[in-house]
Amino acid sequence: MDDLKAIVESLLFAADAPLTIEKIRSILDTPDSAAIRSVLTGLMEEYETRRRGFFLKEVAGGYQLRTRPEHREWVRRMRQSRPGRLSRAAMETLAIVAYKQPVLRSDVEHLRGVDCGGVLRNLLERGIIRVLGRKDLPGRPMLYGTTKRFLEIFDMKDLGDLPTLEDLQELGEVWPSDST
Amino acid sequence: MEQTPAQKPYHVTLGDVFDGPMDLLVHLVKKNDLDIYDIPIALIVDQYMAYIKLMKALSIDVAGDFLVMAATLAHIKSRMLLPVDEEQDDETEDPRMEIVRPLAEYLQIRHAAEDLTERDRLDWDVFVRSYTNGDESGGEDPEGLIQISLFELIDAFQKIIERVSPQHFVDITLNTISVKSRISEIADLLEERGSVTFEEIFEEQATKGQIIVTFLAILEMAKAQIIRVMQHVSSGIIRIFNG
Known about the structure:
The structure holds two protein chains of two kinds. Chain A is α+β, with helices and mostly antiparallel strands. Chain A contains nine helices and five strands; from the N terminus they run αααββααβααββαα. Chain B is of the alpha+beta class. At the A-B interface, β2, α4, α5, α6 and α9 of A face α2 and α5 of B.
């Protein structure tokens, strides 16, 4: 297939979710995932060298075209995005769930030293975290984990993209910023 | 400084200022530039309690969590004052570890949360193509087509039936075609062409009976949502679409 690159590009353009190599393979009915992988890498490099307004990113186990962060202000203006910033309480809770999953609400609250019920519920409703199951403890408390959506939102290929807690502490300043 | 917010009934919770007792503790340790593994516990207890008192004086609600931490700190302080039993020295650990361990863990989480915040966030820093799912018939049609009401359809039907020549009025062929078979004929036509105008559908329908059956078929199909009946805004032409 000479125009494999263009075909894959079409699929990426029309896809409504990150496209996995497996999915591309089944659509094109080809067993050659190495060829697809090399085409994807080729596209990535092409967008990069030509400084396109979008780039190809490996995210949540698939590949997705995304607008360049440098142009965020313009796209926000078009989308009329409201600052959907997550509060620090939400970010801390999310960080705990991401790093310690599967994790109990009581563990999250123990680490943060405050009630986290509302924050957890909000994250659940937004599909950023999910209930992974119940722990075999009295009351069968729920165990939380992150979703695929979490990977998509925070620009990660998989959970392995999270830096280790030790690395974070070494890389960052001694103290995290106090800004709220 | 003419009008300060302080003139409003002043009522905030401590949670608005600090996200929790751990947060306040981090603030204090940071402010005093302390090593968390060697915290002068007396100093921290004093400052922590000073904050709580200040908050109370400002009539800021102090959540129970903050008081629990205050008690913990006070407990550690009192244990620090106890003479250390030389013989058991190896087994008794520094009482401050009770607070140091969670503090260190919390700090890690703070770093992790900050790292997450700095990532290129979807729908904020980076964007993907958006989809407006489903909803094909509703809303604005790109080609200037609007969905028409039953009354408009009846108006159009009347125009067609008026055109039928008078001699056909006496034709009794009404029972020869059923609505059902007409539906399948229209369905075939739509499958072939995708869409037809209202007029086209009636083209070969010579008799009044055939016209009525055709009209009934269209109504049935529209009801079953097999077809969509749209009217062009400017030309007024009614067009019937597949599905």
